[in-house]
Amino acid sequence: MEPINPNKPSTGLFILMSAVYFGAYFGLKYGVLGGELPWMYNLILILVCLGLALLLHRRGQKS
User: Fold this and answer.
1) CA distance to 7, 37, 46, per residue, from 40 (Å)
2) pTM (2 decimals)?
3) What is the pLDDT of residues 2-30, one digit of tens each?
4) d(Cα 56, Cα 32) in Å, to the nearest integer?
5) Cα end-to-end distance, the chain, whole Å
């Protein structure tokens, strides 16, 4: 059995980041763009969410 990795994000943070991504995705696709989401918007959304996750991860390491 492996020890718990202290740098691993919590389950709650994973669920929160997933909810933010899917909320933004479906909100843009159906709420703003009427069902047509260009692939570039999806790519930008993924990169923004990854950037946020890295920022939160680094911020958590400093504490």
Assistant:
1) 31, 8, 10
2) 0.63
3) 666 666 667 777 788 788 888 888 888 88
4) 28
5) 27
**More confident: 57 or 23:** 23
For 7, 50, 58, the CA distances from 63, given in Å and listed in that order, are: 11, 20, 9
Tokens of 41: 């918007």
Q: Is 34 left (phi over 0), alpha (psi -120 to 50) or beta?
A: left
What DSSP string describes the chain?
-PPPPTTSPPHHHHHHHHHHHHHHHHIIIIIISTT---HHHHHHHHHHHHHHHHHHHHHHHH-
How do the domains of the chain map onto residue ranges? 11-61
Token pair belonging to 13: 């943070």
